[in-house]
From TrEMBL:
Name of the featured protein: IclR family transcriptional regulator
Domain IclR-ED: 83-264
Record keywords, A-Z: DNA-binding, Transcription, Transcription regulation
HTH iclR-type domain span: 20-82
Molecular function, one GO term: DNA binding
Organism: Streptomyces sporangiiformans
Superkingdom per UniProt: Bacteria
SMART domains referenced in this protein's UniProt entry, alphabetically: HTH_ICLR
Protein's GO biological process: negative regulation of DNA-templated transcription
InterPro entries (UniProt xref): GAF-like_dom_sf (IPR029016), HTH_MetabolicPath_Reg (IPR050707), Tscrpt_reg_IclR_C (IPR014757), Tscrpt_reg_IclR_N (IPR005471), WH-like_DNA-bd_sf (IPR036388), WH_DNA-bd_sf (IPR036390)
Pfam family of the protein (one): IclR_C
Length: 266
């Protein structure tokens, strides 16, 4: 005969497994709401989450009781509730954007052997906040905390293309007024930014470090126009067209992953 203790252990184990499964199903319901892009009906939620409508309804009732979902009394459509919005805002507040990007940069460095840096937008333009040094020596390196040029660096080009004009215009005017900017016209700047937006990344040759090619791509969040950019830094002798294309593809995948972790969705 099974002892009471054994029976309790069996029951507790079963309850624990059921509890975990229930959390996973509840998460599928919430994912279905996320992917809907707005208020949605019960049948669509059930289909997207792979559950029967009656089962989806029971979960929505429970999620609604704790504020994770809510139902519009007029339309009957479901959406995220106030508790979930508060949780999301708090999660974003606690996220260290530079740390997330730097972790991905270090992994890319380990996978490719090439150096990467992470830049943020500052009062005077793009600022380097992290270097992940690779296996291939560079002629020189730009120290952490240094400001990069807006027009001649790949990270600068990415910020120029993606940030609002009201943010970049003062720095751009200054760049166009100094000697290095005399070869630049507004038409050339517009052409550059259009190309960066079309490709999804920027490439510069020797703009900051002679003999070095850099490839940069943007990182986005749910609350900031573009807080970060990541860049490969490659010795010119290794920067074949094939290598640059491969690194660009890997960088775009990485920056999209970082953006996703920071709450951004396309």
């Amino acid at each position: 005969m099974m002892s009471a203790t054994s029976a309790d252990a069996r029951d507790n184990g079963g309850a624990e497994r059921q509890g975990i499964q229930s959390v996973e199903i509840a998460m599928r319901i919430l994912r279905a709401l996320e992917e809907s892009g707005g208020p949605v009906g019960l049948s669509a939620i059930a289909q997207a989450s792979g559950t029967q409508p009656s089962k989806a309804h029971r979960y929505l009732v429970s999620l609604g009781r704790v504020g994770l979902t809510q139902q519009n009394p007029s339309s009957g459509l479901y959406d995220f509730g106030p508790a979930l919005r508060h949780l999301g805002a708090e999660a974003l507040r606690r996220t260290n954007e530079v740390a997330v990007a730097s972790d991905h940069a270090a992994r890319l460095r380990d996978e490719t052997g090439h150096s990467l840096n992470v830049g943020v937008w500052g009062e005077t333009g793009p600022i380097i906040v992290n270097w992940a040094y690779g296996a291939h020596p560079l002629p020189i390196t730009v120290r952490v905390g240094a400001t990069l040029p807006l027009l001649s660096s790949s990270i600068g080009n990415v910020f120029l293309a993606h940030l609002p004009d009201t943010v970049t215009e003062p720095i751009l005017r200054q760049a166009l007024s100094v000697q290095q900017g005399r070869a630049w016209s507004r038409a050339k700047v517009d052409k550059l930014t259009a190309e960066v937006l079309r490709r999804g990344y920027a490439v510069s040759l020797g703009g900051v470090i002679p003999g070095v090619v850099s490839v940069a791509a943007p990182v986005f969040t749910a609350t900031d126009p573009m807080p970060l950019a990541m860049s490969f830094v490659v010795p010119d002798r290794l920067a074949t067209d094939e290598t640059v294309e491969n690194l660009s593809d890997r960088l775009i995948v990485a920056t999209r992953a970082v953006s996703g972790e920071l709450g951004y969705s396309v």
